[in-house]
Specification:
Blueprint: H1 4-13, H2 57-77, H3 111-118, E1 122-125, E2 128-138, E3 165-170, E4 174-180, E5 189-199, H4 201-208, H5 221-227, E6 245-248, E7 256-259, H6 269-273, E8 277-280, E9 294-295
Antiparallel strand pairs: 1-2, 1-6, 2-5, 2-8, 3-4, 4-5, 7-8, 7-9
Length: 296
C-alpha cells in the first residue's frame, strides 16, 4: 500500500490538462467562518465590478415602438398633455380682518345713517370679537325710542355724545347694547340686534351657557349683551377709545336687507312700519323674523 506522501507526490507531478471550452471558476477566498473575504491574500481590497443587466437590441426596439404607439394614440384621441397645475389652496375668509378703532366723528351722524354703516363693523371686549350683522335705528321724535321720555336716570346716556354705549336692562333679564348716535343732546341710538363670532368662541359659549356654533348663539340683542358680558355699568363708555369695549373697523357688507323694527307694537303706526331695521344679506346670523326683510 502506498503511503499518503507518495500519493500526494504522484498527484502533484501530473500535468494539468485543460478541457476544450472549459473555463475555471475562481471562488473568492473565505475566512474562518466560511464567509467570502473582501481582502485578497496580499491584503489589498478586491473591487467587485457592478453588474448591469443589459437589454437586448430587440427588446429596446420593442419598448421604443410601444412608447411611440402610445403617444400617437393620445395625440389622436386627447389634447396634448401639459404639466398639471399646482393644487389650488382653498381660502377661507370666515374671519374678517380686525381694523383700527373708529373715530368719534364716525358716530356723530343721524341714527338712520349710522345704522347701516355699523354693519360689518366689529365689537371687541377682551378676547371676544363679534361682527355686527343686524341693527335697528332709533331717532328723535321716534315713538319707539327711549328718548321719548326725555332725560332720566335710565335714558341719560342716549342724550350723550355720539360713539358712547347705552346699555339697558330689558324685562329684568337681557342687557341690550346700543351705540349712541348723532351729537350730544339729540337723543338717538342704534340697537345691536345680532352678531356673528370672530374670536373668543369658548368665552362666548361659556357666558351664553350654550355649547353651539349655530346662529342661535348670537341672534338677538340680549344674546349679544350676554356674550360680551355687559351690564348697565357700561353705559356712557366711549366706544372709540382703546381698551374695555370698542367698535372697530371691518369690511363692508356686499348687500343689505331692510325691514320694520321688532317688538315695538306700542309705537305709532308710522314708526312701527318704518323700515329702520338693517341686516347683512346672505348671512344666517340674523334674528327672527326674517321674512319681513327685503333687499335695500
Amino acid at each position: 500500500m502506498r503511503s499518503i506522501r507518495s500519493i500526494s507526490s504522484v498527484h502533484s507531478t501530473q500535468p494539468f490538462r485543460r478541457t476544450p471550452g472549459f473555463k475555471p471558476h475562481l471562488s473568492p477566498p473565505t475566512n474562518a467562518a466560511g464567509e467570502a473575504s473582501s481582502m485578497t491574500t496580499s491584503g489589498a481590497p478586491t473591487a467587485t465590478p457592478p453588474r448591469f443587466k443589459r437589454s437586448s437590441p430587440r427588446k429596446k426596439s420593442q419598448l421604443r415602438s410601444r412608447r411611440l404607439a402610445s403617444g400617437d394614440a393620445q395625440a389622436a384621441g386627447s389634447p396634448a398633455l401639459t404639466r398639471a397645475p399646482p393644487p389650488v389652496s382653498l381660502e377661507v375668509d370666515a374671519v374678517p380682518p380686525i381694523g383700527r378703532a373708529l373715530p368719534r366723528e364716525f358716530f356723530e351722524v343721524d341714527a338712520l345713517d349710522l345704522a347701516p354703516r355699523l354693519l360689518g363693523k366689529l365689537l371687541r371686549r377682551d378676547e371676544v370679537v363679534l361682527r355686527i350683522t343686524e341693527v335697528e335705528a332709533y331717532r328723535p321724535n321716534d315713538s319707539a325710542c327711549h328718548g321719548r321720555f326725555g332725560i332720566t336716570a335710565r335714558t341719560a346716556p342716549v342724550f350723550g355724545p355720539g360713539g358712547h354705549a347705552y346699555v339697558y336692562l330689558c324685562y329684568g333679564l337681557h342687557m341690550m347694547l346700543n351705540v349712541v348716535a348723532d351729537m350730544e343732546g339729540v337723543g338717538a341710538a342704534v340697537l345691536i340686534r345680532s352678531c356673528s363670532p370672530v374670536s373668543g368662541l369658548e368665552t362666548i359659549q361659556r357666558r351664553r351657557g350654550q355649547q353651539t356654533e349655530k346662529p342661535i348663539l348670537l341672534t338677538g340683542p340680549g344674546k349679544v349683551g350676554q356674550a360680551l358680558g355687559l351690564s348697565t355699568d357700561w353705559s356712557n363708555h366711549p366706544l372709540y377709545t382703546p381698551g374695555g369695549l370698542e367698535v372697530l373697523d371691518g369690511p363692508e357688507p356686499e348687500g343689505i336687507l331692510i325691514g320694520p323694527r321688532v317688538g315695538i307694537e306700542y309705537a305709532s303706526p308710522e314708526h312701527v312700519a318704518a323700515p329702520w331695521r338693517f341686516a347683512i344679506a346672505g348671512t344666517p346670523w340674523i334674528s327672527a323674523p326674517k321674512n319681513t326683510l327685503r333687499p335695500r
